[in-house]
Structures are given as C-alpha cells and as structure tokens.
Amino acid sequence: MKVQVHDTLPHTLPEDDAHPYRSGAWRPQHVEYDAWDLNVEGELPGDLNGVYIRNTENPLHPPIERYHPFDGDGMLHSISFEGGEARYANRFVKTDGLIEELDSQESLWAGVAELPASAKAPHQIGARPQMKDAASTDVVVHQGRALASFYMCGDLYRLDPRTLATAGKEDWGGALPADGVSAHPKVDENTGELLFFNYGTEWPYMHYGEVSPTGELTTYQDVELPGSRLPHDMAFTENYAIVNDCPMFWDEEAMAAGLYAPRFHRDMATRFGVIPRGGGDVRWFEADPTYVLHWINAYEETTATGATEIVLDGFFQQNPSPKPRPEATLEENLYRHLDLHSMRSIPYRWRFNLETGQTIEGPLHDEILEFGMINGKYGGRPYRYSYDALPADGWFGFHGIAKHDVQSGEITTYRLPEGVYASETVMAPRDGSAAENDGYLVTFTIDLPNDRSQCVILDAANPAAGPVATISLPERMSSGTHAFWADATTL
Ligand SMILES: [Fe+2]
User: Fold this and answer.
1) 277-308, pLDDT tens digit by residue?
2) Distance between CA atoms of 58 and 412, rounded to whole angstroms?
3) φ, ψ (nearest 5 deg) of residue 98
4) How many A from CA of 138 to the centre of ligand 1?
5) 412 within domain boundaries
6) Separation of 162 CA from ligand 1 center, angstroms?
7) In the prediction, which pLDDT does 328 show?
8) Ligand 1 centroid from CA 305, angstroms
9) What spacing in Å lies between the alpha carbon of 468 and ligand 1's midpoint?
10) Domain containing 466: what range?
11) How far is the CA of 369 from the centre of ligand 1 (A)?
C-alpha cells in the first residue's frame, strides 16, 4: 500500500479520552490520507467500477458540556474502483463551523444534548440553529459531485467523489433554500433528479423540492404541518414523493423556553404526505403511531380494482421512546435512543390506496434491522432485495449485514467477527448487471481487535459466502452513519 498524509487537523481532545462515543469503534480520526496500490486479499473484481463513500463523525474538540455522537465533524471516506484497481481517500468536510472552530480551538456550538443557550457563536442555518451544521450525516452523489448533508438541515457541501477535494457549497444557481436541506436527499438514478425536503420550527414547518439532472431547482413547495416535526428521511416512487409526520416531535412548551425535548405521542397517528413529482397538492394518509428513521424503498402498484397503491417499505420502531432506566446515568439513557434494539426497529410495509385513501400496514419481518440499502437502479420501482445492517445490541454499531428478500421474507446474513463493525453497506451493480442482485456489497469495517479498517466486498447474490476481496486501509476509521454507491457512469 502506498500512503500519503494529506493533512492532520489539530484537536484538543484528551489523549486518554474514555467517552463511549469517542473511543473504541467511535475513536475519531484526525489524519487525512490518500492511499493507492492497496493490499488486497482475494481478487478485486474487474467489473466493479465506481465509488463507495461513507460519512463519519470525528470531533476535534471536547463539547461545551455533553457530547452526543451526532455532534462530531463530518469526514468522508471514499474508495474508488476502476479496472481492478482501488484508491482511497478520507477528508474532513470543511464546513463553516469546522473552520471557525479550527480558529477558536474549542466547541462553539451547542450539541444535540446540550442547552441551546450555551452556544458561543452565531446561529447557523437549520432546524436547530444553535447547533453546528457538521455535514456529518449523509452523502449522495448528484451531477458527479458528492454532497454531504446534516440531519438537522443545513448546507450541502460538495466534494469530488474520488479525491474528496473540496468544491464549496452546492447552491443550485443561487436557488438553494434559506432553510437549508435535510439529510437524505434522494437521487433517482433512472431520471438523474434529486428530491429533497427540509423542516424547521416555523410555519409551514416543511418544504419539498426537486432538482433537475443539470442542477436547476425545478420544484420547491410548502408542506404544511400542524407544528414543528422531526422527519428524518423521505421516499419516492416513479410519480410521487412521500414525506412523513411521525408523532415524535419537540415539546412545544419546552421549545417556548428555548429547549428542544423530543416527545413521542403514542396516541397520535403517523401521517404520510404523498406529493406528485413535479409538485402539487399533498395527500395525507394515516397509519399506526411510530417513528421511522429510514425508508428502504417505495413503488407504485395497481390493485385488482385498478386503483393505484403506493407501497412504502421502511423500519417501524415498535418502541420509539425507550423508557429511561432509573439506575442509569443521563448519558446512558440518552444513548438508548441510539440502540435500535431498544427501539425494536423492524422491516415494515405500508400501502396507501390513492382511490380509497385507506392505509394497509404490517411487518415484513420480526428481525431487528435498519439502514436498508437497495440496488439504486430499483429506487422508486418494484424491487426484491434490501441489504440491511444487523444492529449491535445496546449501542449504535452494526455487527453484520442481512440480505432481506422482501418478497419471500427470507433473510440471509453475513456476520463479522467479534469486535468488528460494518458500515452502512451499499449494493454496487457489476458492469452490465442484468439482475437486481447481480453485483457486490461494499462496506468499510471498524476492526477493534486488529485496530484497523478494511473495505470488504461480498457477492450480493450470496453474501453469506464471505468476502470476495478484502482491502487494507491506512487507519482505523470512526464508525459513522450513511454511505452511498456512485456507479462510474454517473461520475
Ligand atoms: Fe439517517
């Protein structure tokens, strides 16, 4: 392996940092590398061409008071495959907040679990403007550029997908909304469009937008909600976008006092807003109360009576608001909201009948799963396979990958050795791929026993058979959040 250090960012964290989400699998990285001629065990497939990018959180400074793992600065990791060769790079996303804190050498904004009034710097854009827009949640590739985004809404930071060279902020020709963009914008690989939403604390509380394949904002409309909400993800079909109003939102009284305290209302319906692509009236459907972090996919189906039904798959939390344990510390109770086993999140299907306005819903499986990825060419279209993370019990980490056949219900798994964690795993179709599962699963591991990270490539048709190739990386990365596969043809 040939490795070059691009930069090392100065940090002020203690050397013996023992914070549970700044040590172990969450130990932050502060060095930026370029690496090539990578050591490969097995054989790197010649028909795997494109880029796998993952976003991770890497704090540089101790928090003002209380750290939450979603407060760390965004760092992208990219591995690009071309003609049987792989190259790796990692870079911090040079957000406005990161640059200011490099200057001050301390945390200036209030983290998600901190008092908003403790922020020492001016408001940023987003639903909680006292927080730093760390661009650390999600990443997609649109118009050949990687766009890093933040779950509380903010700017979209652009980077070259292969080299991760910074390319400023996305602005869509000056039309990027003042309320910012939420994490989880969706790229429709079949049309090249980007669909997005944002949310906030002021009427209309949500907007929905569309961007053309060449980067023009073509749709931007109000989505009026009954109040401030906490939507995290959206879905789309060929003709509709689907946004959500889950009964988990900031307590209004607390908000009036300047605090953000999420409350789950178990007696309130979950509402789904169906919006025609291209813009138009929002049609609302009601369903059982829950909170959904991530959707898997959605598509349209024609019923026996000729009605159009929207099929939406995602992860239903059976226990969205785990009760605090009296014996636990405040931090421990806080981190229960990162444990998908506490929230008991299972794959689930909703059907919205556009003729009758009725919802039909129910589980697809009873296995605790989340972070489902699909072959992107099937986004918004009928599909069969979801490649999900197997969440570790008790904290926010993934100890394997589950391939879920949503038609038959069959689940096959690939489990990593003890102490090794996966990233959000993408499905990368092979060149000339003819079938939905004809391709590779690509993930980065966080390997504690060997203090290293690797890129693991599995056969998507048979992940249980184990790695096709394993590639060494320069340094163990921090476990993070979302990832994206960009086919070489889109770069
Ligand atoms: Fe997410």
Assistant:
1) 999 999 999 999 999 999 999 999 999 999 99
2) 32
3) -60, -45
4) 7
5) yes
6) 23
7) 84
8) 36
9) 28
10) 2-47+194-490
11) 14
